[in-house]
Amino acid sequence: DVKVTQSSRYLVKRTGEKVFLECVQDMDHENMFWYRQDPGLGLRLIYFSYDVKMKEKGDIPEGYSVSREKKERFSLILESASTNQTSMYLCASSLPARGEKLFFGSGTQLSVL
Amino acid sequence: AQTVTQSQPEMSVQEAETVTLSCTYDTSESDYYLFWYKQPPSRQMILVIRQEAYKQQNATENRFSVNFQKAAKSFSLKISDSQLGDAAMYFCAYRGQGGSEKLVFGKGTKLTVNP
What we know:
The complex is a heterodimer.
Chain A (H helix, E strand, L loop, with lengths): L3 E3 L3 E4 L5 E7 L5 E8 L3 E10 L2 E4 L6 E7 L2 E6 L8 E8 L8 E2 L3 E5 L1
Parallel strand pairs in A: 2-11
Antiparallel strand pairs in A: 1-3, 3-8, 4-5, 4-9, 5-6, 7-8, 9-10, 9-11
Chain B lengths: L2 E3 L4 E5 L4 E3 L2 E3 L6 E7 L6 E7 L7 E2 L2 E6 L4 E6 L8 E8 L8 E2 L3 E6 L1
Parallel strand pairs in B: 2-12
Antiparallel strand pairs in B: 1-4, 3-9, 5-6, 5-10, 7-8, 8-9, 10-11, 10-12
């Protein structure tokens, strides 16, 4: 079974902390994505990566950075967490063709207090 | 930039009946892909159905079918013989041509299935 695994299902952090959200896929996919999901706003793309060490900003990259040192792992970093980054974070991966579907992780619900 | 609009924040349907979820999109491209994803309470997003813009035939997957109207930029999802397990958030998504391969999502429709 293909799998995208997010390291935490629930996470509680304090304002100003550095936060790492980890995502690992076992499908040898080139593309990996980080989305943020908020009620009434749908899914918004934060960053995506189309190869190791390659990344592109999505629609809402401010306050976030990413790291992709290995093909299977894509990390989202909140340099200094703020309360407005409390949200559900979804990682996804896909093959590079445009018609290919995204495989999603189960999400990390992050609360910043 | 492309946008995807789902005008129905919530919908409900009786078990065994049919429901249609609406989606419209805005693009100047001629070649693109459209998707419907389902997110049940478990939060695991799964693909329901996909449509290639250059294919005129509407995609079908078992009880799920789409009504793709390219000129109207409309992509609705029809669920026939609704089941309790169909209750979920449904997201319409667009993926265009060009160098960027990102998927643009609508805000979602919450579907409730009543027994």
